Amino acid sequence: MNVVNIKDLSPKELEDFIINLGEKPYRAVQLAKWVYKRRVTSFDEMTDLPNGLRAGLGVVAKISYLKPPLERVSSDGTKKYVFELFDGNRIESVLIPENGRATLCVSTQVGCALDCTFCLTGRIGRIRNLDPSEILDQYIGVNNLNNQSITNIVFMGMGEPLDNLESTVKALKTFTNPDFIGFSPKKITVSTSGIVPKIKELGEQISVNLSVSLNAARDDLRDEIMPINKRYPIKELIEESARFPIPKRKTLTFEYVLIENVNDSDEDARRLGELLMGVKCKVNLIPFNEADPLPYKSPAEERVFGFQKALISYGINVRIRKNRGRDILGACGQLAADYPFKNIKPSKFSGKLK
After folding, report:
1. If you count Cβ atoms within 10 Å of the first and of the last residue's Cβ in the chain, which end, N or C, has fewer?
2. Catalytic status, residue 112
3. Residue 344: its pLDDT value, please?
4. CB-based contacts of 182, cutoff 8 Å, min separation 6
5. pTM to 2 decimals?
């Protein structure tokens, strides 16, 4: 008999599962509240469910959990959590406290297949997709270890969320259902490197914030540092992203990692400004987070401010994102689940395009 992990079921799937057991649909909501709001891991604790249902669930279902993670704390207050999965693989989540908010960055894959040359996770390669339960259990595990409530969730950890779309969508539906975890879609952001058809598929299934990792304004450069661009070039990516159903009063975001002598010149700023002029969006500039064995450097501060000023002249809303957790390898592009660097592939960037 196949045993079902309750956390791998979307809200609709959980209701269907309960109905197939001969129970009323409202029992699914009762079960979900025990699992996600009270965070129990045993059906025996669910005292408002009939004894027969509890006993039956114990035979056909289970409630997963991740064992307590290794915690690393940055000098800036950022916390990185290294979770060990059931098969011995490891993933990382990052909790970023700031101005009364606490943003949790969750992973969707062990490693990543997209091979971006400036990202440690991409140097590992994709090992496997995470199940919905493994995405949700990052939130539950971190929440259990912190007094401060998590206010925002970003799918920006290890992996490409749209390369694991089924698990990502199921987790999102559980996060946003008020009877399950109950986050507002306005408080959740999914980041993508640009799998264009999957952007459309995501938008057809749920409305959350979308953040697109752009990082170059011309195709030849983006081909080099983000190979996914060879399949889905910049113009196609921006057009599809602009159609995404962002929640009301929210804006499409483009992320731009500034790398010294790669994509940070005045000409790069001009190209980016012209590319995004007229697109309803904002731009987050992210000074590159240095980490061995990546071959890049972060630009000088005055170069970052100069790039921002150039974009603002095109009428674009631009902010420079603080790099949090650098000292614990918890910043953007640094997540590699403490893998020994000998297991990380060297960068393929040729450096010949400038």
Report:
1. N
2. no
3. 56
4. 176
5. 0.94
